[in-house]
Design a protein that fits this description.
With 139 residues, the chain is of the alpha+beta class. Helix content is 42%, strand content 27%. It has one domain (11-137): Jelly Rolls. The strands form two sheets. It has a four-stranded antiparallel sheet. The protein has a four-stranded antiparallel sheet with strand order 2-7-4-5, with no helix packed on it. Strand 4 and strand 5 form a beta hairpin. The chain is globular, with a radius of gyration of 15 Å. The structure holds adenosine-3',5'-cyclic-monophosphate (CMP). Residues 46, 52, 65, 72, 80-84, 91-93, 95, 132, 135-136 line the site of adenosine-3',5'-cyclic-monophosphate.
Length: 139
Amino acid sequence: RNRQHQLEMQQLIETFPMFAQVSEDSQEELLLLFRPKSASPGERVVRAGDRGDGMYFISSGAVEVQLEDENVRLEAGAFFGEMALLSGGRRTADVVAVDFCEFLLLERRDFNMFMARHPALRAAVSNMARERTEMNVSR
Ligand code: CMP
C-alpha cells in the first residue's frame, strides 16, 4: 500500500472515527466504494419523499436537515441519508447545503453489501437513525 493511500485512509478515519472499527482491508474497500459528490450553498442534496439513492458522509461544509418545525445543522464528520436505506422507504426530510460541501456517497447497493458484512457499523448507523427518529416524533 502506497503512502498516498495511507494518508487517504488516515484522513478518512480522522473525519469519520466510526471507520476505525473496521479492518484496513475494509477501509480500503470503502475508499473504492465512495463516490465523491459536491454541492453549492442552497442546493438540495436529498428531497423528502424520494427513494434513497445512498448515504452521504460530509467531508467538508455543512447541510441543514429541514424538518417540519426545525432545521438541524450537520457538519463535516456527520452523515445523512441513512434512514431511507435502512427502512427501504422514502427520504424523511429535505437536506440542503448551507456551504460549499464535499460528500462521500455510499450508493444503496454498496451500503447493503458493506453493512451486511459489518454488523457493528450497521448497528452504529441504526442507533443514530433511531435517535433521530425519536427526536422527530417527540417534537
Ligand atoms: P433520509 O430519511 O434517508 O433522508 C433525510 C435525512 O435527514 C435522514 O435520512 C437523516 O439522515 C436526516 N435526518 C432526519 N431527521 C434528523 C434529525 N432529527 N437530526 C439529524 N438528521 C436527521
